[in-house]
Amino acid sequence: MSRFGVYVHVPFCSSLCPYCDFAVVVGRGDMHERYCDALIDEARAQRDIPVATSLFIGGGTPTALSPPLLRDLIERLRAVLPLADGAEVTVEANPESVTATGLREAAEAGVNRVSIGAQSFAPQVLRALGRTHSAEQAANAVAAARAAGIGNVSLDLIYGSPGETMEEWTTSVRRALEEGPDHISAYGLTIEAATPFGKAVARGAMDEPDQDDLAAKYEIACAMLDGDGYRHYEISNWARPGFESRHNILYWTQGEYAGLGIAAHSHRDGVRWWNTRALGRYLEDPTNARDGSDALDDRERAEEWLSLRMRLIDGVSLDEAAARLGRDVRLAAEACEAAGLITLEGDLLRLTTRGMLLENDVTLRLL
Fold it and tell me: Which domains can be identified in the chain, with CATH numbers?
């Protein structure tokens, strides 16, 4: 069976994190039910949708919905969308909104994977990131997911936050490992212009993350996670064998997917399109929410393929790259190997740890 994913965006959050550039709506509990109804209307309007091998409910904060409402949404989505047997069904969760009851109801509705936005286990770092949960709440969320019978638990971490020390980052990684998740994501802080952090940087009230600091913390993550039973399968992601994110792999391999909700993106037959970010417009007519589209030509698609595949630790076939790009990349690859950015094993190119830090630069050299 070919793989196909469905992404469902639940934008509601209790507060706005200063680094977040996603489409979020703070508060508005009065809109929760209406929004869920709109999601189902949009799902019903999907035409010729393939059987989905993954369903990812993200945000925002899906667990900001009440447990009965989230369960009802999942059950209605499963009734409307064609899901494969054994499909990966993920819900994102923030620790402060996780309850044992809520995760139990989600599991009973078919959720088999939960992604918990811990971000850090250091109190000062959580405050700097505008997070409203504690380290203990993050640990409790993992325990609640296990108690609910959810067999695939992921933790998200962010490094490079304002004022974060090496000791705090090392402690966060260690604490994450102690919780025993099946999957860990670790992302360096990025500054988006429209966010509070971005505006603070623009007016000189905050510094950009230091690149040397980010590199050192990434290397710490690699050393600690690679040596503790996790497989480093994508630049920012580690998993126990068999627990890689099937849904995210679709994105990294140019797979096809449908997006439901505000700002959700879809990809079918070489065309990408996205929904409006405006909640009011979406609620007026969720079946006509498209806000734009884009179709890559063959050259652009080949270059995107290389950029995405370089992120996967399994590597890139030089022969396949040559076939897609229409030219041999071996000489450029050998120069990257001499610079310590990649390793070459026969036909296979893989990034080194240093190369992972400079992935965009390596890709440009190959192109």
Answer: 4-252 (3.80.30.20), 298-366 (1.10.10.10)
